[in-house]
Design goal:
With 389 residues, the chain is of the alpha/beta class. The chain has 15 helices and 12 strands. The chain binds pyridoxal-5'-phosphate. Pyridoxal-5'-phosphate binds next to α5.
Length: 389
């Protein structure tokens, strides 16, 4: 006989977090419904629509009846395009079998953490970090070990900083450069030292390169391309941010066969492949998208510079982010340490919606995350509104 106690979700699933950002989004939607003006800087999407050539590629795929199951690892046209892009852009010469198409970077990350982490394994990550990463680690039974971004600033060789957190249980390093939410970009020398540390201590690395095309100062380099790193690095990519394709849900994972054998099974058993027409659109984006990326660079820079100036003038200390499209001002002097209260104060006084920094880990407390990826009109209005703070 079954009892009602059986009618409960599995323990590991109930402990998963649910994005605080969604709570803020709901609050903003409520304000909009009441007719209030909100300057929405709380999101994380490119400001422009998906370019027409990508949409056309999907239309052509539909007209050609490309609507059936595709190989669960990805259509050959997309895999070939990615292989070429990796060689040209990431200094990674890989076999097509080392590439798998996923439902966005989020799904790639889920598969990667499930592949590597066993219960009790410790995972180092720079903090503040993108919120879901903590859930990915704990859902696999792992233990997050935070390394403050603040300690990293201005240090070329990160080995000592990482060494301080190394234990016999450390299995994995999660590296996200350019970083959400801080906009930090690790320099080549810093990445070299992270790679050396991983090799010296026989660690695996998940390299989340979601913002690889959004670097404003410095350069992007892929950890897997450093000596001895390919076999120990699972690289995560997405088309979401590079090509304004957040809703298309296309990303890809690049890894050695040791990992790929498992990742292939996870992809098969979770989604059995990404939507076929989306993959045709993605192939066009990866093959012909360079010009688009170059064309929006100045628009992003202009928005970033305007907002950085306005924030600092309003007493919210903000360094110019070197990558991604987030500002992460330190609001402690002006608004106190509690970032939830600071978010409320900014929303009330300026109508700017932002995300409390503490949502991204304890090291984010006293900060707010604001996106500068929005229309120029909104940016100009937000810059003006900051005078009211
Ligand atoms: C650091 C980071 N990694 C990965 C992703 C995943 O994006 P998507 O699932 O849209 O590819 C995001 C999205 O915000 C992100 O900020």
């Amino acid at each position: 006989m079954t009892t009602t106690t059986n009618l409960i979700p599995a323990n590991r699933a109930t402990h998963l977090g649910f994005s605080d950002i969604v709570k803020i989004r709901n609050r903003v939607i409520g304000m909009l419904e009441r007719g209030q003006r909100v300057l929405r800087l709380e999101g994380g999407e490119p400001f422009m629509p998906t370019p027409p050539f990508i949409k056309d590629a999907m239309k052509e795929a539909l007209d050609a009846d490309q609507t059936r199951y595709a190989p669960s690892s990805g259509i050959p046209q997309l895999i070939d395009a990615i292989q070429l892009k990796l060689a040209e852009h990431n200094a990674l010469r890989v076999d097509p079998r080392s590439i798998i198409v996923t439902s966005g970077g989020a799904h790639g990350l889920f598969c990667a953490f499930q592949t590597v982490v066993d219960p009790g394994d410790e995972v180092m990550l720079f903090s503040p970090y993108w919120t879901p990463i903590r859930d990915h680690i704990t859902f696999a039974g792992g233990v997050p070990v935070r390394v403050p971004w603040e300690e990293v600033h201005g240090v070329d060789d990160l080995r000592e900083i990482l060494q301080q957190r190394l234990t016999a249980r450390t299995k994995l390093l999660y590296v996200n450069s350019p970083a959400n939410p801080t906009g930090d970009v690790l320099s080549r020398r810093q990445l070299e030292s992270v790679a050396a540390f991983a090799v010296e201590n026989n660690l695996t690395v998940i390299s989340d390169e979601a913002y690889e095309d959004l670097v404003w100062d410095g350069e992007h380099a892929s950890l897997a391309s450093f000596p001895d790193m390919f076999k120990r690095t699972i690289s995560i990519y997405t088309l979401s941010k590079s090509f304004a394709m957040t809703g298309w849900r296309v990303g890809y994972v690049v890894a050695d066969e040791t990992w790929m054998e498992v990742i292939r099974k996870l992809v098969l058993n979770s989604i059995n492949g990404v939507s076929t027409p989306s993959q045709f659109a993605a192939a066009a984006a990866v093959t012909h998208g360079k010009a688009f990326i170059a064309s929006v660079r100045d628009d992003y820079r202009q928005r970033r510079d305007l907002m950085v100036r306005a924030l600092n003038e309003a007493g919210l200390r903000c360094e110019s982010p070197r990558g991604a499209f987030y500002l992460f001002p330190d609001v402690r002097e002006r608004l106190g340490n509690d970032s939830w209260k600071a978010m409320e104060a900014v929303l009330e006084r300026t109508s700017i919606a932002s995300v409390p920094g503490v949502v991204f880990g304890a090291e984010g407390e006293g900060h707010l995350r604001m996106s500068f990826s929005t229309s120029m009109e909104t940016i100009e209005e937000a810059a003006e509104a900051l005078h009211k703070l």
